[in-house]
Amino acid sequence: MTAPAKAESTPKAAATENTVIMDTTKGPVTIELMPEIAPQHVERIKTLTSQGFYDGIIFHRVIDGFMAQTGDPTGTGMGGSELPDLPAEFNDTNFGRGVLGMARSSDPNSANSQFFICFDDCSFLNGQYTVFGEVTSGMENVDRINRGEPPIKPDAINTMRLAKPMAPNPSVPGEDVVQPKAPEGSDAE
Description:
2 helices, disordered N terminus
């Protein structure tokens, strides 16, 4: 089994096209996505992140010693994006502290936009949910997210951004991404 790196505050080296910066009400969290083990799930997270889908969404289910779940625009645990559900991409990566997995219903092929971050070892989820990333810094901020199902005062994702914007994927309908404009006076215009 592949064991993810320990998820604490030590940042990894340079940001890649698979680095996500999630600014929460508790502080920043850096996530490294794992396209080598869950390419469709990583693509979905990148697409929704690029569209600003996660901005302002609360952590609606936060269980001490287990995980913090977010990604539902309704805040109820029943919502998702308008994109179709994803087929499972179960892999042998351990659900350890700081690992991100896609939430789903009882149908293994029902993951859409909701995801969770493990507070502690959650190896009982191995082979039942898709691992798609891990926290590389800011896990102390995840640890501070208010608990509850739902929390009385839920924390939220203020903004979620790709460290390096992705190019449009013309082969995937509905997944065109608008590139940000270069700063005025730069050579990139």
